Structures are given as C-alpha cells and as structure tokens.
Amino acid sequence: MDEDRKRKLARQFIESIPHARALGMELTEIGDGEAVITMPYDTRFVGDPSTGVIHGGAVSTLMDTCGGAAVVSHPAAHAGTATIDLRIDYMRAATPGQRITARATCYHVTRNVAFVRAVAMDEDEAKPVATATGAFTVENPGRGK
Amino acid sequence: MNRSRPEPVQVVKERRDRALAALAGSIPYAQFLGIEFERMGDEVTAKLRFDEKLIGNPLLPALHGGATAAFLETTAIVELAWQKLWHDIESGRLDAETLTPDTLPRMPKTIDFTVDYLRSGLPRDAYARARVNRSGRRYASVHVEAWQDNRSRLYAQATGHFLLPSGDE
C-alpha cells in the first residue's frame, strides 16, 4: 500500500466512526494488515472512580476498532468488516492519566474470515495492559449476504 | 423486635432502589455510554439508551461492537456487585442511605471477557441481563445476554471471568 493511500485511509477510518470519534481515538499507523490507534485518558471513561482506572469496556472498544482497521488494511480484504467475536484478557489496570495505545495485526485472511491479534499498552510499553484475539468478517463485493 | 410484621413496601423499595442507583452512579463510563438499570426484586436489567455517538458503522447503520462489549461487561460487573450489595443492605451490614462511591464495596475486576456478536446492533435501545454461573471466594464466571426488539433474538452474548474483591480490601 502506498503512503498516500495509507494516510488517507487512516484519516477517513476514524472520521467515519462516530463512536471512535466520541472516544477521541487517533489512528497513527495503518497498512498491510496492521494498525495502531491511541486513545487519550479521560475521566468520563473511568470504570472505578476510587482508582481512576479506565473502564475495561473502553479498552475493548479501542482494541475492537484497531482490529477492524487492521482487517480493512489487509491486501486480501475489502472496505467493510464486522466483529464476529472478540476475547480480551486484562493483564493489569492501565495507569490513570496515561494514554492507551493498541496495536492490532490481522495475521490470516480467508475468503470469509479475518483473524486478528491485538495488544493494548499505556506509557509503559514493556507491560501490556490487555491482549485480544478476534475473528472478523471479510466483505466480498458482489456477493449477497 | 416484632418479627411477624414486614417492613412497609415503600421502605423496602426505596432501600433497594437507592442501593442500585448508588452502584450504577459509581461508574462514570456507564453514564458516558448512557447505561441505566431497572430492578424487579433482585433481578436487574441493564438498558443502553441509543445515541448517535454509539454508532460504529454509519452506512448500515449499526452500533459499535466496542459499545456493545462495554455494555455487556458493565452489566456483568454490576450484577456481581449487586448480588453482594443486596446481601449487605438486606442484612443491615450496610446502610443504603449513606452509600457513596467511597463506602460501596470494591468492584470486581475483569480477568477476561469474550463477546459473541450474533447480529448487528440496530440504532435503538438495547437491553441486557447477566447470570452468575459460579461465584466462589476469589473468582466468578458470568454470562450475559443482550437483545433489542425480541428477548429471544439475542444480538450479542458474552462470558467473562472476574476477580472478586477480598474481604479486607
């Protein structure tokens, strides 16, 4: 994928998803089945005010969005995708105040299914906050659903 | 104490509603998404009120899978916390009148959560109920079902494992 197309795809991807915009997501890398998206710390996204830790659901949303971006950027996939299933393992609480970054890899694509792995980190990139694995749909143009 | 005389219905309802509201109100992200909780006895139903900001695919349009995942995870956590809180307020160990985020029991922590997307989420309200399949001293396994128009046509389901707060925390 050439650099111009990557940049255009990156900009359009988040802009076209109202829920990703609502969470302040920013796509920083995309192409060839890999994507990186970051999300700022925001007190509205907190799950437990006694700790200030971001809600697991917000981290899930970041990983799901990033997984979808990785799928649509894969050379064998097309424009759209939907999540079939997603499993998240929460390794530790994200440090309050820090931005969360997810990196997703679409490591295998068949005619109908894309397989994805993702990892989420705060500013301490050596210790992941969460990992995810998921299956996504591959939309084939011209084929009835 | 006269054991044969039950408490007036309003006293019972107010205590339980107040405790559930305190629990729900203690989760900022649930409020951001627009999640509300309704109670019949000890059964809790969560409601995700539709909003444009929950859309993940504007062409269909469909709810974002992440919003659905967060809705299901919140429902599971609230159900687990509610079951403990119910015992605490009914036994008199905690006073529902004075519950604040600081005095509420600690929340369970998610270990893992697996969401199964069965249909695309339509641009309208969604509902969910959780069932605690096993809750031991330290770990719990919870299943959640979510639907929109028809209770029997689930649009998503999930299973999660949770670490329960220990008594001394």
TrEMBL record, chain A:
A cellular component annotation (GO) from this entry: cytosol
Keywords: Hydrolase
Signal sequence, renumbered to the chain: none
Pfam families on file: 4HBT (PF03061)
The protein, known as: Hotdog fold thioesterase
Annotated Thioesterase domain residues: 52-127
InterPro entries: HotDog_dom_sf (IPR029069), PAAI_dom (IPR003736), Thioestr_dom (IPR006683)
GO molecular function, one term: 1,4-dihydroxy-2-naphthoyl-CoA thioesterase activity
Organism the protein comes from: Kangsaoukella pontilimi
TrEMBL record, chain B:
Any GO molecular function: thiolester hydrolase activity
Gene3D superfamilies assigned to the protein according to its UniProt record, in alphabetical order: Hotdog Thioesterase
Record-linked Pfam families: 4HBT
CDD domains: PaaI_thioesterase (cd03443)
UniProt domain Thioesterase: residue ranges: 63-151
InterPro entries tied to this protein: HotDog_dom_sf, Thioestr_dom
Full protein name: PaaI family thioesterase
Biological classification of the source: Bacteria, Pseudomonadati, Pseudomonadota, Alphaproteobacteria, Rhodobacterales
